[in-house]
Amino acid sequence: MKELLSREGVRFTAHNVDEDERAYDDLIARGFRTIPVTVFGERVVKGYDREALLAAIAAWRATS
Question: CB–CB of 45/60 below 8 Å?
């Protein structure tokens, strides 16, 4: 995940839900119980789905 984002030139902040209670609460509030979850503005990609991530990056770039 981090490698793909870095290769695509996307700046990101990683949160460890095991160590960050706020990040865990945000994950639960979004309706997720598993990780990874990647958030691009309002768009969310669950798991490592390369095609969905690339589509989300493209959509995010188009609106940024």
Answer: no
Is the model's pTM score more than 0.85? no
Candidates 35, 55, 56; CA nearest to 44 is 56
Residues 17-44 have pLDDT tens digits of: 999 999 999 999 999 999 999 998 888 9
Amino acid found at 24: Y
Rounded Cα distance, 53 and 14, in Å:
15
- Listed residue (58, 21, 28) closest to 43, CA to CA: 58
Domain map (residue ranges) of the chain: 2-63
